[in-house]
Amino acid sequence: MILMRYNNSKGIDMHKLMMVMDEISEDLAIVEGKKDKKALKAFGLNNIIAINNKPLIEIADKIKNKGKSQAVILTDFDSKGMELAARLEVLLKRYKIKVNNRLRCKVMKFGRTRIEDFNKLVRGDCHVKVSSNFNEIYNKSSYKGKGSSRET
C-alpha cells in the first residue's frame, strides 16, 4: 500500500475554483501556451485558444471568425503575461469583442502566477518516498538527513 498526500497547499477552496471555471466555460478562454490550455481542459473547459507566440492580430481574427463576442484573457499573472493581456485587450476591443476582466480577477485571487499551475490542483501533486523496505513509507519532508550518519 502506498500512501499519497495530495498537495492542495495555500488553502485553495476547490469548490470556489470549480465555480469560477464553470463561469469561464461560458466564454472563450485565451491562454499563452499548450500547458495552460491543458490545465484548463482538466477543468472541463473546451473553448480555449492558445496564443503560442502567434501574432495577436491573428488571434483576434480567429476569435472574430468563431463568432464569439466575449472572451476571458487568462495569460499568466507575471509581468510578461500582464503586458500581453493588456495588449490583447486593446486589440479585442477594436474587434468589438468584450473582455471579461471580472473572471480574470477571480482566477488571480487564487494566488497562482501561472495558469498551468492549476493543473496540479486537479490531478493532485503527489509527494511520496518509498523505502527499499516496502513496509515503511517516508514523508519527503521527514526523511531529510536520515541515512548519512558517517563520522569523520
Question: Secondary structure elements and their pairing?
Answer:
Layout (H helix, E strand, L loop, with lengths): L13 H11 L3 E4 L2 H8 L6 E3 L5 H10 L4 E4 L5 H16 L3 E2 L1 H8 L9 H6 L5 E2 L6 E2 L1 H4 L9
Parallel strand pairs: 1-2, 1-3, 3-4
Antiparallel strand pairs: 5-6
Q: Could you walk me through the main structural features you see in this protein, from its secondary elements to its overall organization?
A:
This protein has 152 residues and is α/β, with parallel strands linked by helices. It is built from seven helices and six strands, in the order H-E-H-E-H-E-H-E-H-H-E-E-H. The protein has helices spanning 14-24, 34-41, 56-65, 79-94, 101-108, 118-123, 140-143; strands at residues 28-31, 48-50, 70-73, 98-99, 129-130, 137-138. It has a four-stranded parallel sheet with strand order 2-1-3-4, sandwiched between helices. Strands 5-6 form a two-stranded antiparallel sheet. Strand 5 and strand 6 form a beta hairpin. The longest helix is centred in the middle third of the chain and has 16 residues, at 79-94. The protein starts with 13 loop residues before the first helix and ends in a 9-residue tail after the last helix. The model is unreliable at 1-9 and 125-140 (pLDDT under 50).
User: Segments where pLDDT lies below 50 for 5+ residues?
Assistant: 1-9, 125-140
Shape annotation:
globular
Beta-strand segment tally: 6
Strand content is 5-15%
User: What percent of residues adopt helix (DSSP H or I)?
Assistant: 40-55%
Secondary-structure class: alpha/beta
Order of helices and strands: HEHEHEHEHHEEH
